[in-house]
Amino acid sequence: NAGVTQTPKFRVLKTGQSMTLLCAQDMNHEYMYWYRQDPGMGLRLIHYSVGEGTTAKGEVPDGYNVSRLKKQNFLLGLESAAPSQTSVYFCASSWGTAQYFGPGTRLTVT
Amino acid sequence: GESVGLHLPTLSVQEGDNSIINCAYSNSASDYFIWYKQESGKGPQFIIDIRSNMDKRQGQRVTVLLNKTVKHLSLQIAATQPGDSAVYFCAENKNSGYALNFGKGTSLLVTP
Description:
The complex is a heterodimer.
Chain A: E1 4-7, E2 10-13, E3 19-25, E4 31-37, E5 43-51, E6 54-57, E7 65-67, E8 73-78, E9 87-94, E10 100-101, E11 105-109
Parallel strand pairs in A: 2-11
Antiparallel strand pairs in A: 1-3, 3-8, 4-5, 4-9, 5-6, 7-8, 9-10, 9-11
Chain B: E1 4-6, E2 10-14, E3 19-25, E4 32-38, E5 45-51, E6 56-58, E7 62-67, E8 72-77, E9 86-93, E10 100-102, E11 106-111
């Protein structure tokens, strides 16, 4: 099992550009999550999904959109990147409350 | 608002000693707590969890203690090793579904 994988690992964007981060899990987990982590901070929940075709807002959803078209994939989109979105993005999945994390995507917006 | 916080931002211990990392929480309705370990450049790794109907839970070299009276959670690592050097996060489940609320983390440094 690969667990939770994320692509890409690194990305640099210019302000106003768009991109999609891909998260995939092979554990047949029902729930998936997107977090961002800023220096010296814990993780903050952006959006999450409790099943295929469903998504919900987390703590910091502004500027992001998500889609869960397939159970194993959870996409995070930035329509118009801003420097404030420079961060490390982590995807996680779970059956219940214990969440399992991917390796992260480091995004820099200049 | 309610939050999860850690008592110390950094902790330095000697190899072989026991480590204790503390966490305070304020949401008395939280019923589930998790400890994660995050090594540099990696995602958080699940260590151990505990439900609010328990006071103590043990794993391999790790023990989590929960004191609901004072809303305090601790992670004890026995015989700390250099590979234990990392940032440790406690997290609690929020009232809504399975979303977790993370603390800011404690950096554990193990010295030889």
